[in-house]
TrEMBL record:
Coiled coil stretches, renumbered: none
Domain of life: Eukaryota
Subcellular localization(s) per the UniProt record: Membrane
Lineage, uppermost ranks: Eukaryota, Metazoa, Chordata, Craniata, Vertebrata
Protein name: Taste receptor type 2
Membrane among keywords: yes
Example of a GO MF term: bitter taste receptor activity
Key words, A-Z: G-protein coupled receptor, Membrane, Receptor, Sensory transduction, Taste, Transducer, Transmembrane, Transmembrane helix
Chief localization: membrane
UniProt membrane topology term: Multi-pass membrane protein
Gene Ontology terms: cellular component: membrane
Length: 308
């Protein structure tokens, strides 16, 4: 098992470093812009909130998994592990909601549908963004409080170590899937997921129709605008892929379905879940001209420093 844990920690470390750098870049760029102009657009506000939540999420996930490895041999680690788990769940849910509102915002601003409800939301989405972000803080807190009792602390054996005088303690991740609180906890993850998927599918559908309409109305099969729309569609598909992978892996880990299987699957779920905030943030940077330009400059500067 030890080689599996070591390899998993190395991969997790790489994912965490990529996520920390990517989200740190998003935070620095938008905070610098806010300091300079004293205002942020609604889109930049969501991106900044998402970057901050994911920046701390990456650090928390990495530290949490270190304790996951060390906890069986550390006295008093259960309390620390439990607190890290709760904080990680809070940041998890919060980043899910922020990513969902980003998808909803893009959908409202870019997609074109004639339904009255959609038109009403399209006109008011900019004013709703601050309220949606604030409500996400409260909803995520309620969701994470439902996971307070999922970490069990139990004593191994009844004997006491003669040298240290301490009883050996083991921490375990235990979820009672029949509990009503657990069901509510899963709904707290499921609700933003379904909103995200619906808004992303609506946006892809609208862009796809618009792209096909433009190809029929022009002599040139693919112009610059069409290529831009296709690029957005590819980015959204990547978003959905990362989001679904993350959601499924997190759900399986929380339900502890394979508790009596092997440690391999648990680490696989952790690595898939950790890949989402990193990969999603990288795609956001590549799809944003301003962030992409600054990222390229930072990479060129880093290369120059390495050469020197």
């Amino acid at each position: 098992m030890l080689p599996v844990i070591i390899i998993s920690l190395i991969i997790l470390g790489i994912e965490s470093i990529i996520g920390i750098i990517a989200n740190g870049l998003i935070i620095i760029v938008h905070c610098t812009e806010w300091i300079r102009s004293r205002k942020l657009t609604c889109c930049d506000m969501i991106l900044t909130s998402l970057g901050i939540s994911r920046f701390f999420l990456q650090w928390t996930m990495f530290i949490y998994n270190i304790f996951f490895v060390l906890s069986p041999v550390m006295n008093g680690a259960c309390t620390i592990w439990r607190n890290l788990y709760i904080f990680c769940m809070y940041l998890n849910t919060l980043s899910l909601w922020f990513a969902t509102w980003l998808s909803v915002f893009y959908c409202m601003k870019i997609a074109n549908f004639s339904q009255p409800l959609f038109l009403w939301l399209k006109r008011r989405i900019s004013g709703l963004v601050p309220r949606l972000l604030m409500s996400s803080l409260l909803v995520s807190l309620v969701t994470c409080l439902l996971s307070v009792n999922v970490i069990d602390r139990k004593n191994i054996g009844n004997s006491t170590n003669n040298l240290s005088g301490n009883i050996r303690v083991e921490c375990s991740h235990n979820v009672n899937s029949s509990s009503g609180l657990t069901i509510l906890h899963m709904l707290g993850y499921s609700f933003p997921f379904f909103i995200f998927v619906v808004s992303a599918v609506l946006l892809i559908t609208s862009l796809w129709r618009h792209t096909k309409r433009m190809e029929k109305n022009t002599n040139i099969s693919r112009d610059t605008i069409t290529d831009a729309h296709v690029s957005v569609i590819k980015g959204l598909i990547a978003f959905i892929f990362f989001y679904i992978s993350y959601f499924v892996a997190t759900l399986l880990f929380l339900l502890n379905i394979f508790a009596h299987g092997s440690l391999y699957f648990s680490w696989f779920c952790v690595l898939v879940a950790a890949a989402y905030p990193s990969g999603h943030s990288v795609i956001l940077i590549l799809g944003n001209p301003k962030l992409k330009m600054i990222a390229v400059r930072a990479l060129n500067y880093a290369k120059c420093c390495c050469i020197d």
